[in-house]
Specification:
By secondary structure, the protein is α/β, with parallel strands linked by helices. About 50% of the residues lie in helices and about 15% in strands.
């Protein structure tokens, strides 16, 4: 391993005779890995997002943050902001193909992420070039359903995607809404999701990943089904991680493609990518960018150490288990074996909020779900969530939501 000695401290000079593996392990422990490892290149083939939260822009941010080198081929130009997509202009398939060819012949990336594809000619061009250049990894995350629920791909293109792109993919990553749109089948249970993954796997990809299932209270589950394996792998995060942030699913797939390029196997790449996206979501809780769907803030939170993040996640899990019966910050601090002051410092660094604010937000979120979807009366809901009276419950709800429980419920009754 060629290393310039003048850039090493005396301590580091003593380890240059170690094996490359030993040396990299030591550098990793001391936070110096990025200075010495050659970046792998990853090609992202997808649409451009003018607000920068998804598509090419988000992929560049993600790949760069994880130590890769991002190259791009733009398929569509969108006019959008955090409120949604206003217009889409699809580039000619010939131009898309030339972008891909010039990158593949020069940088030769071994990992490719494919996203938004909106016409048959583009699909045929990309499948032909995948066959020509044979990248080792292809991660396909079709931009079928936007964060706001808009459908971006016509139904008549789905068969082309399944016939041409799926069989050439190392992994097809889909939001649950996209999987429902493709198959026409609803997902209400874990078995429903697994059966749909099995159906999609028959199209020829090496693996199917279904993102963002909510099969129980306060948990987010991703389901990975690999070719040749009977049982899926489940990745579940407790707490109220919410992937409704603009571009989160695309960031997830770009992170997987990057980890593939760094030599991780499928399960480890998915695991690391989940952790990266969840960290971003937590870092971005207090983001003030835009006024519609929240945007992910890819800027590194330098003062948020792994230890702080671990304690924050442990706090989230404790809230999930106890928020109905306990809203006392000292209770949670005792559970984590820290002081209330230190807990407040942690939540401020990670989320920009106090522990009390976070507990209240979880409580109001759950109450809103009850009011909008259950048949329980308001008094029953009040007692279920630890309020001593309906009046106390109503006062709390007005402070947090701006309307009374009855007004909030009536809004949903009218929409139904």
């Amino acid at each position: 391993m060629q290393i310039c000695r003048q850039h090493l401290s005396k301590y580091e000079q003593t380890i240059v005779t170690l094996s490359q593996t030993q040396f990299l392990c030591i550098l990793l422990e001391h936070g110096k890995m990025k200075q010495f490892i050659n970046n792998a290149s990853i090609l992202s083939i997808t649409g451009s997002d003018s607000v920068g939260g998804s598509g090419i822009q988000a992929d560049i941010k993600t790949i760069s943050a994880l130590g890769g080198y991002a190259a791009t081929a733009i398929t569509s130009v969108t006019v959008q902001n955090t409120y949604g997509i206003h217009e889409v202009f699809d580039l000619p398939a010939e131009i898309i193909g030339k972008q891909i060819e010039t990158i593949m012949e020069d940088l030769r990336p071994n990992s490719v992420k494919v996203g938004l594809l909106r016409n048959c000619q583009t699909i045929k061009t990309i499948s032909r070039l995948i066959d020509k250049y044979e990248p080792k990894y292809v991660v396909f995350e079709p931009g079928i359903v936007s964060t706001h629920g808009s459908i971006l791909t016509d139904k008549d293109l789905l068969s082309d995607l399944r016939k041409d792109i799926f069989p050439r993919s190392s992994l097809v990553s889909l939001k649950f809404e996209a999987a429902t749109y493709i198959t026409g089948k609803e997902i209400a249970t874990v078995d429903d999701a697994v059966n749909i993954a099995k159906e999609l796997l028959k199209d020829g990809s090496k693996a199917i990943l279904l993102q963002g299932g909510r099969f129980g209270d306060h948990a987010l589950t991703d389901i990975l089904l690999e070719k040749g394996k009977d049982k899926p792998t489940f990745y579940t995060t407790l707490g109220f991680i919410d992937r409704n942030s603009h571009g989160a699913s695309g960031v997830f797939s770009a992170a997987i493609a990057t980890y593939f390029s760094q030599g991780l196997n499928l399960q480890d790449a998915v695991k690391q990518a989940r952790e990266y996206v969840n960290r971003l979501l937590i870092y971005s809780l207090d983001s003030s960018f835009g006024h519609g769907s929240p945007l992910l803030n890819h800027a590194e939170a330098k003062d948020v150490t792994p230890h702080i993040l671990e304690l924050y996640n442990a706090f989230m899990k404790e809230i999930v288990q106890h928020f109905k019966s306990n809203n006392d910050v000292s209770f949670y601090a005792d559970k984590l074996n820290v002081t209330t002051r230190y807990l407040a410092q942690i939540t401020k660094k990670v989320a920009g909020k106090s522990p009390k604010e976070i507990i209240k937000e979880q409580l109001i979120r759950e109450i809103e779900i009850q009011l909008s979807s259950s048949s329980k009366n308001i008094q029953e809901i009040a007692y279920e969530y630890g309020f001593t009276s309906q009046a106390q419950f109503t006062k709390f709800f007005k402070q947090m939501n701006g309307s009374s429980p009855t007004q909030y419920r009536n809004k949903f009754s009218k929409s139904r």
